């Protein structure tokens, strides 16, 4: 086991996304996962039925407890739910882990349409977490919110990634799974420029938690000392393999096979 990841995210009762996906991903990649849970959700493959945010000070205390004792080599944030939680997470990072690699997955809305980040929290996320992130990993819908413009094709993805880089993160990765076509194109933008990472699309309904899994795979790789672009490539392969070997559980948007080996 090498590399410690502190995952700060919501819990998925169905086990496919959120903290559960974070733990499985880090474990599969040989890293250690610690957690600070931001919200409890009642959900399965058909959608989210209820969401209960955790008090912001409780989230911050959980982060501090882990960082003061076990420590971390990277932090990954996912669903943060409320403005108060976003602010508390940012303060905890600034106080206890200012130099750690930070992967920000700006989770805003579930695939079934449930809002997972309050409107008033988006501005705080953009001001407090995005500028200090090592990498942000929005999907197309999330990138549209952060950028303020629509994204209809690969060219717009590249433009959006370059624009979001100006907000302060060291890198931006926009995942392109929501665009149609036989190839999935993820766009990465950093100081070296813009690049497109392509892979074949896996035809499957088992894609629940792909964003969480992708971000956690990057965090685990950074915690293990891997360079950012290699970490992104590794995460893309991991997600593709996890979709391709998914168990087919549930009647809706099913979970991945994180422990595919």
Description:
By secondary structure, the protein is α/β, with parallel strands linked by helices. The chain has a single domain, classed as Ribokinase (UDP-N-acetylmuramoyl-L-alanine:D-glutamate ligase), CATH 3.40.1190.20. Helix content is 39%, strand content 22%. The protein has helices at residues 18-28, 56-69, 83-96, 119-129, 140-147, 154-165, 210-223, 228-244, and strands at residues 4-12, 32-44, 47-53, 74-77, 102-104, 135-136, 171-174, 183-190, 193-200. Helix 4 links the parallel strand 5 (102-104) and strand 6. Helix 7 packs across helix 8 (228-244).
Concise account of the structure shown:
The protein is an alpha/beta fold and 261 residues long.
Which terms summarize this structure?
single chain; 8 helices; three-stranded antiparallel sheet; 261 residues; alpha/beta; 39% helix; UDP-N-acetylmuramoyl-L-alanine:D-glutamate ligase; six-stranded mixed sheet; 9 strands
């Amino acid at each position: 086991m090498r590399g410690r990841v502190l995952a700060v995210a919501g819990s998925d009762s169905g086990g496919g996304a959120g903290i559960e996906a974070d733990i499985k991903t880090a474990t599969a990649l040989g890293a250690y996962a610690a957690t600070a849970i931001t919200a409890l959700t009642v959900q399965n493959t058909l959608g989210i039925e209820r969401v209960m945010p955790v008090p912001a000070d409780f989230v911050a205390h959980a982060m501090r407890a882990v960082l003061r004792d076990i420590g971390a080599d990277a932090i990954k944030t996912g669903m943060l739910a409320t403005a108060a939680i976003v602010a508390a997470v940012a303060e905890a990072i600034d106080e206890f882990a200012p130099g750690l690699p930070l992967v920000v997955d700006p989770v805003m809305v579930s695939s079934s349409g449930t809002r997972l980040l309050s409107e008033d929290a988006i501005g705080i996320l953009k001001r407090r977490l995005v500028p200090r992130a090592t990498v942000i990993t929005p999907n197309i819908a999330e990138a549209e919110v952060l950028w303020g413009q629509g994204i209809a094709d690969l060219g717009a993805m590249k433009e959006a990634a370059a624009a979001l880089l100006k907000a302060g993160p060291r890198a931006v990765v926009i995942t392109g799974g929501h665009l149609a076509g036989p190839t999935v194109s993820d766009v990465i933008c950093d100081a070296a420029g813009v690049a497109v990472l392509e892979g074949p699309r896996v035809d499957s309904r088992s894609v629940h938690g792909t964003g969480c899994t992708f971000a956690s795979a990057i965090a685990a790789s950074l915690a293990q000392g891997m360079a950012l672009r290699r970490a992104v490539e590794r995460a893309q392969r991991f997600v593709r393999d996890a979709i391709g070997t998914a168990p087919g559980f549930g009647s809706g948007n099913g979970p991945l096979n994180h422990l595919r080996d």
